[in-house]
């Protein structure tokens, strides 16, 4: 098994990688847009036309995934790590150990996805893989449901990113001016609108600079990590390590401590969600079938190391203190940095660094989301697909898909004018929807392995360990999917409810009904376009 390197090509005798039936014109067209002969071969086999420019390379795509996940930033920036959901259910020991366990299983998950990305490097990602790998009788219907699930999961994450950025900025204002009249719902919502315009605007007007920006932000991501790490270890108040690593809490009074810790699983999972982002950018990556899998693995590997170190550091160095959890800024990291330094100026500088990092994470989420719905529209899986899939001449990016992301996100943001609970209920579907798409796509490959059916040739393979890796990934994903619907306590009030189950159920019903009413005639299953050379 080659995890971070290039594997021997599986079934090479059945697959002429150099051409695979692609014409000289196809290869010339791919080369003009920055692709290789391998890229032309892959696109030809999948029956897709190369429309986007391949600007990304190994380092820039690693930067894209690393920055998008922002694992260590999410742990300290948001209230996810220090929220009742994790400390209330699990305690400090639960925060640390569940983070480490999650990282290990996420590596198995991303390895499974990376292998499929090497077989079929397409912006469609999961729904395309399901279409090719599912049993023939389910290829069209199941890929359509997974397509909707992945699209909803990604797009609903865009306003969530804008909401995080807005809360962080408001927290910085409140730190400097505690008596400021800011933080009302309409303040947050207007800031969200501004961030959404900036996120989409960057993806439209500065798209050609996105790979360079991701590389630069990757460097900032690393330097900022060490800056926060040194600050906390040298200046912050510390809790006894033995106490931190052994204090378990079952605040929700669940049936056991294990169940309580699993209820808090969504916290570390949030810090790793979206590793398929690289796959959705695969049609903009040079030599994608071999570069993409390695980039996906390296990104999650490094994010996991940084994430686990920062999680331990933040919990030990004041991140779980009452003054941090109950900070009037609403941002644990700002209060923790201020407690350590005693300097508002220093805290604001560190906060500004986080704003830059989180903004580019949001830009990456927007880019991946737009490619997902663009690919799905290309296969006629969405309403107004003909317009959404259009790539304006000379732009080489899915502008219309980005405008859809902007419009949909602004509509969701407007809900925040009336109730942030309602907005949180809608965006809560993101984790569950993406996990579902992972389960089905990996499950289809595992089924083929169980049946002894040949898999597609790939330049990056799990080899003889494929079945075990798939099993580990599926076991973890199924548990994560189930607990993504759990509330904080067994008998929650309306404000403590987890609305993910309601939103996911509504999405599944709408997609299923729409499939049988119209999409089964209009939707073009990707497998139907595949060329069997």
CATH class: Mainly Alpha
CATH architecture: Up-down Bundle
Low-confidence region ranges: 5-19, 79-84
Number of strands: 0
CATH superfamily: Amino acid/polyamine transporter I
Can you give the mean pLDDT?
A: 86
Helix content: 55-70%
Helical segment count = 25
Secondary-structure element series: HHHHHHHHHHHHHHHHHHHHHHHHH
Provide a short characterization of the protein structure:
With 533 residues, this protein is mostly helical. The chain is built from 25 helices and no strands.
What do you see in this structure?
By secondary structure, this protein is mostly helical. It has a single domain (56-523), classed as Amino acid/polyamine transporter I, CATH 1.20.1740.10. The chain contains 25 helices and no strands. The chain has helices spanning 24-32, 37-46, 58-69, 71-77, 84-88, 91-119, 126-133, 139-155, 157-176, 185-205, 210-235, 241-246, 257-263, 266-270, 277-280, 288-319, 322-325, 332-341, 344-378, 385-388, 399-415, 420-427, 429-450, 466-483, 500-522. α8 packs antiparallel against α23. The longest helix is centred in the last third of the chain and has 35 residues, at 344-378. It is globular. The two termini are 27 Å apart. Mean pLDDT is 86; it is low at 5-19 and 79-84.
Topology:
Blueprint (H helix, E strand, L loop, with lengths): L23 H9 L4 H10 L11 H12 L1 H7 L6 H5 L2 H29 L6 H8 L5 H17 L1 H20 L8 H21 L4 H26 L5 H6 L10 H7 L2 H5 L6 H4 L7 H32 L2 H4 L6 H10 L2 H35 L6 H4 L10 H17 L4 H8 L1 H22 L15 H18 L16 H23 L11
Helix pairs in contact: 1-2, 3-11, 3-16, 3-19, 4-16, 6-16, 6-23, 6-24, 7-8, 7-23, 8-19, 8-23, 8-25, 9-10, 9-19, 10-19, 10-21, 11-16, 11-18, 11-19, 18-19, 19-21, 23-24, 23-25
